[in-house]
Amino acid sequence: MNVTDVSLGITWFLIYLTAVYAAIRSWPQASPAVLAVLIAAAITIAAAVVAPAIPLKANYWRVFATASFLMLVYLMVFGATYKSISLHILHDLWQTPSRKLPIEHILARYIQKESFSARIQVMLEHGWATQSSQGITLSPKGRWLARSVRFVQRLYNIEKSG
Fold this sequence. Notes:
extended
């Protein structure tokens, strides 16, 4: 690996970061996680198409490895920051002047509102479930998704997940 390979990999990653930032700001209604993953795929495909036209002596696979590593690290940090309830609670504590919140406030916000109510709403919006007077019912689309997830869990011997 040489300086050119690493520099191009970092440049590729910076283009990715810029695209993710612009997309999340431009489409606030879209899922930031989905945008981040789709843009990683799109930029990887675009780089494979554009690479032969770049008049630099570089090893594509080394550049790809550098950029991919940086994108994967970013996606892991982004995912943890975006979805971590613990980090959200810490942020709420940090924003309060006293740095204290009643446990009831935390439970109401993160367990009842964000964990259950918001997740049920997502299932309804995506058509994975329907709501009636009897409660929540799994839709055909939801059954397919549940079977698919269970298949992956069995494949990897995952018995507990959050």
